[in-house]
Amino acid sequence: MSVKIASTNHPVHALVASRFSPYAFADREVTREDLVSLFEAARWAPSSYNEQPWSYIVATREDGKEYERLLSCLVDPNQAWAKAAPVLALGVARTRFVRNDKPNAAALHDLGAASAHLTFEASARGLAVHQMIGILPDRAREVYSIPDHSEALTGLAIGYAAEPANAPDPYRERDETPRQRKALTEFVFSGSYGKANTFA
Questions:
Q1: Per-residue DSSP letter, 39
Q2: Strand order in the sheet with 54-60
Q3: Are 177 and 16 in contact (CB under 8 A)?
Q4: Number of domains in the chain
Q5: Residues 74 and 136 sit within 8 Å (Cβ to Cβ)
Q6: Residue 31 placed within a domain
């Protein structure tokens, strides 16, 4: 399996350089031991007031009925490729603090931090995670009885990356295309917004 190593301008950890979001997944199951370690990594992510406002709804292909339920919460274009992943999950954020019932402005950020922890743990284990915003939040709420003040925000496809040729059209080309990112000068500022930091 070829890995899409990032062509970085500055040295970064190998896990950062090798992480990517495949559209092609191998026909290979994820062990329970690996799966629980991914969510253990998410568990230890930082959060505002240690609120830990994230939840995950998970289904494995081994449980066909539950897998189909979760797959149905993805938009059709994402279902087309995500159905090859052996594990699917929904990331849910509680948008109000448990401690005082006030709005938690950091909830979405904190869910992202937890999912990033999960993703890098996956990379360390040779797994890949493709996160997606293309889900059906209302369907997820109905199917899983998600309570008020909690929102399904993202989907995650988890498994082993396969060769791009295994991805359905038109996603094959995306897996074959080299990864690109903005330069530091485009998002690291100093003095005023939009003014590139001198070290960048």
A1: H
A2: 54-60, 87-94, 150-159, 128-132
A3: no
A4: 1
A5: yes
A6: yes
Q: Is residue 171 part of a domain?
A: no
Q: What are phi and psi of 130, to 5 degrees?
A: -115, 110
For residue 173, tell me if it sits in a domain. no
Residues ≥6 apart with Cβ < 8 Å to 122: 38, 128, 129, 158
Backbone φ, ψ for residue 118 (5° rounding): -60, -45
**Could you tell me if residue 188 is inside a domain?**
no
Look up the domain containing 145 and give its range: 14-163
Helix/strand/coil for 19: coil
Q: What is the pTM of this model?
A: 0.95
Radius of gyration (C-alpha) of the chain in whole angstroms: 18
Per-residue pLDDT reduced to its tens digit, 18-41 = 999 999 999 999 999 999 999 999
pLDDT band at 199 (very low <50, low <70, confident <90, very high): confident
CATH number reported for the structural domain that contains residue 99 in this entry: 3.40.109.10
